[in-house]
Amino acid sequence: MPGGSGTGLSRRGLLGLAAGVGAAGLALGAGAGAAAGVAVGRARASEGAASVHEFFGAHQAGITTPVQDHLHFASFDMMARTSRDDLVELLQDWSYAASRMTQGLDVSATGAVGGDPEAPPDDTGEALGLPASALTITFGFGPTLFVASDGTDRYGLAAQRPTTLERLPSFLGDDLLPGMSDGDLCIQACADDPQVAVHAIRNLSRIAFGRARLRWSQLGFGRTSKTTTGQATPRNLFGFKDGTANILADDTAALDAHVWVADSDEPAWLAGGSYLVARKIAMRIETWDRVRLSEQERIVGRDKAHGAPLSGGVEQTTPDFEATDAAGSPDIDVRSHVRLAHPEFNDGNRILRRGYNYVDGNTDLGQLDAGLFFLSYQRTPDQFVALQRTLSTDLMNEYTQHIGSGIWAIPPGARAGSYVGAPLFA
Ligand code: HEM
């Protein structure tokens, strides 16, 4: 590992905590690490099982688990002169820390205040006293992890690259900022408390010291989708209900068809995983706010009050794209967002959306720098590409601008005692 650790939190330090617990010492729970539990520990997620999501499992948490209220998303690049072993150890260290933080624990057993007073603490401390807050931490591998932009195979992974994992093509109207796009690795941290999500990314960035560095990151608030039947449909910054027709956690047939990479797909190491697309979409909300209500509804294809399709009914009524008014005009405009994005006009194609609103302060013109940090999970990147191309004629485009983009393969969940991405290195 180059550079050692100026943070005082070395790989050895982290894994040493659980020495003897297995290759990476990733086992969590009754082991010495967890039990040492710092005297002034985190309020250990006792506030109800619903607020804790297991890190280990068949699929990574943070996809079908109930979408939380806050997001901190981060993209990382591996540092120059790092080896395959550095990468594996980083993933082991990240998995270990993530398995603890998602339980409402500090990143290590000595944590924020239980270590040597003469050394910087392992954990940064701002989540002390906070419960797990439904934290999920989801890791992804970008195209450049497999083959770097200059074509080199830094980690001997080129042969394992999923053939469809490529930088997304350019789409009409894209105005992408390099500082908000791409990355070798990504971490999606979602929680019901923003401080818990930020604590996770901050500490994982710190653990990466000398191996990977933050490329860009995004804070999000106010989920713009739902992933379970029990959740109410939230609203985006255009004021419309968003997530009505999303794929939900209990729809296993749809998840298998559209979200999870199947055993029969390639490559084998990705089975049970997915692909994540992130698009930072600026929304011209000041312009939107000057648009009359009926026009806003025409653009979306649903009513603003209840999210019902303009062909009638209630929120969950199936849109009737054939319905017309007395003059013969379709109730749902042919260029409305909902019609263009609907599976009926996309060969049955569906994706699982999990995005967040964002406001990054304001622009020089005194307008809110706001939008949608769009996140979607799909079984193959082609699903997003096809949908986004169909949306090139979307009436909504007048009010949006895609300014950031990234794609990552999302490995399946880590087995207990192992680490995320282990099958890739097997
Ligand atoms: C700022 C940008 C966007 C906004 C404000 C927005 C908003 C909405 C709203 C209000 C709905 C209707 C409610 C629902 O079913 O969730 C919707 C549906 C949908 N959107 Fe978007 N969306 C945006 C971008 C995108 C993008 C980039 C994609 C994919 C490329 C997309 C894909 C979909 C899909 C698949 C549906 C469900 C269509 C259906 O099955 O009825 N959206 N969106």
**What ligand molecules are bound, each kind once?**
protoporphyrin IX containing FE
Q: In angstroms, what is the radius of gyration?
A: 22 Å
In one word, what is the shape? globular
Strand content: 15-25%
Number of strands: 9
Main β-sheet: number of strands, strand sense, barrel status?
Answer: 9 strands, antiparallel
Low-confidence stretches: 1-40, 44-49
Structural class: alpha+beta
Oligomeric state of the chains? Answer: single chain
Helical stretch tally: 11
**What letter string, H or E per element, gives the SSE order?**
HHEHEHEHEHEHHHEEEHEH
Instruction: Note the gap between the termini.
Output: 21 Å
Overall mean pLDDT:
90
Helix content: 10-25%
Task: Write up this protein.
The chain has 426 residues and is an alpha+beta fold. The protein is 20% helix and 18% strand. It has 11 helices and 9 strands. Strands 1, 2, 3, 4, 5, 6, 7, 8 and 9 form a 9-stranded antiparallel β-sheet that branches. Strand 7 (356-362) and strand 8 form a beta hairpin. Helix 3 runs antiparallel to helix 5. It is globular and about 75 Å long. Residues 1-40 and 44-49 have low confidence and may be disordered. The protein binds protoporphyrin IX containing FE.
